[in-house]
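Lab notebook, page 48
Experiment: co-folding of the full assembly
Goal: obtain a model of how the components sit together before planning crosslinking
Operator: M.T.
Materials (sequences as entered):
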Amino acid sequence: MKLTIFKIIFFSILMTLVFSSCDKDDPTPEHPQELITTMRLTFTPSLGGDVVIFEFYDPDGDGGVDPIIQGGTLEDSTDYNLAIMLLDESVTPAEDITAEIEEEGTDHQFFFATTQDFNLTFAYLDEDENENPIGLETIIDTGPPATGQFQVTLRHGLNKNALGVRLGDITNAGGETDIEVAFDLVLQ
Amino acid sequence: MHRIYLLAWFVLASSGLQTIKGQVADSCNLIISGTIKDEHDLSVLDYSTILLVETGEGTAANEDGEFAISGVCPGKYTLRYSHVGCETRDTIIRIQDHMVIELYLEHHAELLEMIEVHAEGLRGQASQSEESISGEELEKLQGRSLAHALSQITGVNILSTGPNVMKPVLHGMHSSRILIFQNGLRQESQDWGVDHAPEIDPFLGDRLTVIKGAGAVQYGTDAMGGVILVDQRRLESGAPLSGSARLLAGSNAGSAAAAIDLHKGNNHFVWRVHGSGGIAGDAKAPDYRVTNTASKEYSFLGVAGFVSDKSRIEVSYSLFSANIGILRAAHIGNLTDLELALNSDKPLIIEEFDYRIEQPRQQVYHHILKGDGNLHTSYGDWNVQYGIQWNRRKEYDIRRGVREDIPSLDLSLVSHSADLVLDHKILFSNMKGKAGLSWKYQNNENIPGTGIRPLIPDYNLIAPAVYLAEQWISSKWTFELGLRYAFHHLEVKRFDENNILETPEFEYHNYAATTGIVWRAGNTLRASSNFGLSTRAPNVHELYSEGLHHGAAAIEEGDPSLRQERSLKWMQSVDWKPGRVHIELTAFQQWFRDFIYLQPGEEPRLTIRGAFPVFNYTQTDAFLWGTDVSVSVDLSRDFSLHSMFSMVRAEDQATGNPIYGMPADRMQHEIAFTPEKGLEGAKKTGIFIRYEHVWRQNRIPGGTDFAEPPNSYDLLHAGASMEWVIRGNILVTGVSVVNLLNASYREYLNRLRYFADEPGRNFELLLQYKF
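Observation: model returned without errors.
Model output:
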């Protein structure tokens, strides 16, 4: 009787081995949903003139081929309207992430900074539901000629009520960084 | 007809004392020796009496519960043993050879019964250093985490990710370099992750054992650091319904946990039910709340078995489930965020206390279904075991859009394992051992829908193995030899950058070998030396990991060209117990060839979130050495002192640099007051005060860490417990204070040390009822 029990155990083990060894189906690739492949900065002179576009472009996302970061030259002492567009171009048609940021405007804000030589000033043009800035639309006064870098930062889950944040000072913002890209900038 | 039934541990490789004398087995010069213990708390029963009914020969145990009867002829005897306050018990034994047994008496039940005890004819002490905690000592440590309980064994440290995720570190090794066995089955989970704690009920186990040697051939070829065994006492037929209920509460995080255990044995049918659950809110560091470190856990175990004279069949099912919050402030977007966090003395996000578990968090389930059978034959004991494990792990991150409830990582790991072991009968009077076959099949699957490229790919692993472990035992010497071979066939299914499926396959021949020697001089001195050779095939995450660690702002990348890692570990240990002092010393030296580790890359990777450092899995030769010291002194009848010290050194032999992530030196001193008669009418009273000192880890490789190692720290803990006897049952009440002085400190092996202090003072209350 006991031996029969052992036989049953052995048999069931054998069966499990046979069944479990069958291969599962091949996996399906995961499409990264939060991918931002492209950040396009469109600088439009307020008083008319040439539109300048800066672009961060990384079609394969993190890793793989290095991103292309295209800065540019702006006129000095000029007011520009800066519009930021975010895209996921790894899918066709490209997905517009800008709308997602706008929808979650209360959780997001862009910040701008430059290397020391610049004296660039800016003011937010847009606002979220709580009348706090988001930064997708900004006006920039370029100031005197200089050469260096212009950095765009997007913070997520920040505290917009902290001191200076509404005016574009990142120091007390908190939250975490979704985007941080430095573009080469020449003002002349 | 080699049948000896004695009540003992399911796992027989325990640390019993060995007192075998004489050489020839077939004349009347056999020796029966052993220890008598309390069945419930495993404390030794001093001055118990032992009698061989048939010959009238008897003896009394010494103050450590040890006894020996010599000049015994081979044959069948009734062994009658008793202790003041316990009922007398009879056990039938058949003696063919010298024998070391552990006998148990029930201290509080009035039932008189025949107990069947199972033991080996010969019990040799393993040459690999083995240490275990059981009984009352273990019960007081349980309920927080497995690693926490294990950390009371010298040489074991804790690698943590906040207050709820704790992994044991053994001689500097952790994760896939140590093996964890729960009731004889290897725990198969996503153990590669440094923030993945073993999925084991913190209340489970009547005994925790740490095998520090590397060549633990009966467990695996890849135990570079050692093996951890979580075992429950074997269920015996005819045992009355008994069990325990426990309650644990802590002030620091408003935590509460409860566990219940019931077991019974009828004539042939035995069963056990065990359940536990726990909840904790946000922990509190002395100066602030550590936000989002709440957790919820529950677990269940059911065992049913059929027992007869010659065989035993058991089926068990267990489930462990946990939902664990990870410090909110540790989720960072990029290096700038990390720098901000490092420059702040407090976490950047501190909220009011609550029990909510929000992102980032981990949700894990671990199911185990196991069947095992045991058959006594004239060749020895046959053991067959089949286990199915299903480990589901979901990790949730802070995400953009409405994706917070979609896991960022969703892994399902199914493992099947089959083992067949022959614990052969004693050969040539002095040789015992076992031979085994084992087989494992594992399937890892990324559950689609995360919207994030998987951190590790899907894979199938098939790993058959064979081993032999033998011991030759004489009164003074034990020699050991063991060999294991395991074949690994790994098939990985991953997508390249262009989302084209590739299915690389890998084959590894892994082997482990061990040899050792033990020398004994009476009951007071034991010295041993052991060599263990082990081979570990690279884990899938070392081959193919790709992804960003949000807690460390670092990208980790695998390397499919990695070779196996090999190591030779030499251990020496001395156990000296002259009178009132007990000294245990263990030293080890371990040489690694192709040690796999993460090396910081030269070029940071540029992404839309900024530049990230890249760490690549790579290999080097390494040398580790270290020492564990444990000293116990009975200062007087009521006072005792226990001190522990451990250190590990690790060097990359290619560069001469220290290896990253090794535990800092640590020592602990405890004074315990345990008066012979309990205070205030209690049966037992215990009061302790413990001092812990951890040195600063100064041996770090330059340029690989984001912050300086934390400073050394000192902690004071204290506690008291009372044990009462209520209608033959035992009630234990205990209070303790962890971090009595509310010290602010950070621990080098806590991955969240960049962001927050360790928890401050915690008052704990323990209630336990054993029936």
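Interpretation: The mean pLDDT of chain A is 85.
Next step: discuss with group before ordering constructs.
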